[in-house]
Amino acid sequence: MIMNKTTLLHEGKAKKVFLTDDADLVIQEFKDDATAFNNKKKGSIADKGVVNNAISCRLFTMLEEHGVNTHLVEKLSDRDMLCRRLDIIKVEVVVRNIAAGSLVRRYGFTEGTVLARPIVEFYLKDDDLDDPLMIAEHAVALGVATMDELEVLKSRAGAINDVLKTFFADRRLKLVDFKLEFGRHKGEILLGDEISPTPAGSGILILMRRWTRTVSGLILVVWRMHTPRCSAEYLSWTEHMMYRDKRAAMRGAAYV
Fold first, then answer.
1. Which domains does the chain have, with CATH numbers?
2. Among 20, 29, 74, 89, which residue has the least CB neighbours within 10 Å?
3. pTM here?
């Protein structure tokens, strides 16, 4: 599909969003910008935007095949994704399968503990407030979502988690936690934004079984330390994540 960018609608940490000739569609342009500490530290990773667009399109397509409706229409180029225009719900949904990060700091879990059942958390999408953790009643009181919508978000997040855990397990990876964003579109709630590795993506955190450290955590730590290894680490684990698709492509199958 040929679609032209018109007006810049929004620029965030990781993407620019443009209006198009069709009022119902927007184009997400993925940037190489990287952030840490809730946007307090900024920099860039070479080809990060290309990688995040490829992964997001791949995972959105797979989720659609499993009955999860997303805003993806099609991948336009290495950096551009054509999407349905959403009324974004200002709730970040975090799904946790293994204790790490803030879950350890906040509640004292031992890092690496496999949770008996996934934990679904809601965070207010507000950078000025550092995206605070909230319960459903907070979201309703703030007017950012209804209780029925929050139930849909929680249910949808659980379904997405089931699909992604299987996808990563097939690649010898464990899904630790990840962040999702949703939006309203013509009476439906669709999965939006992106699904990609950190930093400044949707925050997929994974463990490679033969490694002793978190892979995407390594990316962020390396970048914070200003070492030149960051781009190489970012691309190398991404290639591993997609290796089953690459093998299929070598056999003549199509893959993103």
1. 88-208 (3.30.470.20)
2. 74
3. 0.84
